[in-house]
Amino acid sequence: MKYVTKIQTLLSSSKLIVLLIIIAAGIYYLVKGETDNFQAPFEDTATEPGQFALGIFYATFAYGGWQVMTTMLAEVKNPSRDPPRAAYISFAIVISLYIMANVSYVTILSPGQVKTSTAVASDFIAEISDVLAIIVSVLVALTSIGALNASIMGHSRLLFAGARNGHMPQILGMVHAKYLTPWPSIFVY
């Protein structure tokens, strides 16, 4: 588990690095006086409730990961204290980072560019530097691997817990003798 945790920390930090690059670039251009796009940032914005709901739905992916935390509660040393603390701290960090990233996007990209973009971060970085675009692409790929790793690590614990409670085959409740991980559940997932 320690090896997987270290890998997950490394892969998750790649997302933070990308966000910090975006935020730093946005701050740099704001300090330079790039504020033209802030004159009417919500011009031509959709006002229908369905479009608003769709925007909220897409935004939930930025805050994903909390559901994996709940599957790992059996392995937490102090489950009554640590998970709520982790949730509050991580929500504050994620909300702050994504608000700052969105401000950075609008600093460089016009509201029309943001609205029509399929990958706002990529368009933002491409406007700044070609070399930085390559670095950010690699870091985003690492982030995707990190999401897969978290999914395997967390969701396999559902099979493990189900087996321990008699809802799944007993073999899925077995633990590796050396690494103390639910290896059959990980393999099946």
TrEMBL record:
Keywords: Membrane, Transmembrane, Transmembrane helix. Its main location: membrane. The keyword Transmembrane applies. It is a multi-pass membrane protein. GO terms for molecular function: L-amino acid transmembrane transporter activity. GO terms for cellular component: membrane. The chain crosses the membrane at residues 12-31, 51-74, 86-108, 128-148. It comes from the Eukaryota. It is found in: Membrane. Pfam families: AA_permease_2. This is Y+L amino acid transporter 2.
